[in-house]
Amino acid sequence: MRVRSVLTHSAQAVLEGALIASLVVGLIAGTALAARSGGGKPPRSTTGTGTIALALVVDNNGNSAPNWGDTIRFDVSTTATAEPHVNLSCSQGGTVVYGASTGYYPGYPWPWTQEMTLSSQAWTGGSASCTAVLQAYSGTSVSTLKTLTFTVGA
Q1: Cα-based distances in Å from 101 to 41, 61, 106
Q2: Check: CATH 2.40.50 for 44-152?
């Protein structure tokens, strides 16, 4: 019985470590892409436009505004790509406490990631400043179509 408990705990720890590593890699890659656009070649532009709007899926306190613990998604529209993506980053005092990236198009292989619960192990409460970026991918190029900034209440 003790061995089973240790194995279960170990498996959970490995899974949690993999999740944290994925988030860190995503944040590093996003930072690297952002830094890359600052020098050398200008960022690749794309034809088309885009819109992005925040939509509440679960509004725990019923105030019609995003708060910690609420679940959100984004309504997106673009003529630039058939496969738009949204990258969301939330910070408290300059420290990133939440990051997510997902595609908003039919056939996206992980559609459950389109709904994002505003909390994480690093974000256990309180307000945060968030930025959602609507992007178009073309090979290794990423074009920003629209940026939405918003505040999440405590």
Answers
A1: 25, 26, 16
A2: no
